[in-house]
Amino acid sequence: MHTLTVQVQDNVFKEFLNFISKRKESITITKDKNLDYDPYFYERQNELQEIRNDIKNGKAQMINHEDMWDDMDNFIEKL
Fold first, then answer.
1. Are 9 and 17 spatial neighbours (Cβ–Cβ below 8 Å)?
2. Staple partner for 60: which of 47, 54, 68, 69, CB 3.0–4.6 Å?
3. How far apart are CA 61 and CA 67, in angstroms?
4. CA-CA distance, 31 to 41, in Å (whole number)?
5. What are the angstrom distances between the C-alpha of 42 and each of 1, 46, 49, 59?
């Protein structure tokens, strides 16, 4: 079995549903609540996982909260 995310143009949506209904024994449609809130949920999730892996592997470094605000303050002063 394969899982896909499908975007269907409005003008062919009824035709698409008709196609699916004719094959309902082999096709299941479920609504993903994550995509209701954020259409790019899974792309963002993968990106976050890559960032976390880079931090764990030492390819990237996290800046602590205080240092980040110090850097922001310095940046704003230079403007």
1. no
2. 54
3. 12
4. 14
5. 20, 6, 10, 23
62 token code pair: 């996290």
State phi, psi for 78 to the nearest 5 degrees. -75, -20
Tokens of residue 3, six digits: 């899982």
d(CA 23, CA 33): 24
Residue type, 28: T
Dihedral angle computed from the Cα positions of residues 44, 13, 23 and 43, in that order, rounded to the nearest 10 degrees:
-10
Cβ atoms of residues 17 and 6 within 8 Å: no
Along the 79 residues of the chain, how does pLDDT read in single tens digits?
A: 788 888 899 999 999 999 999 998 998 888 888 888 998 999 999 999 999 999 999 999 989 999 999 999 999 999 9
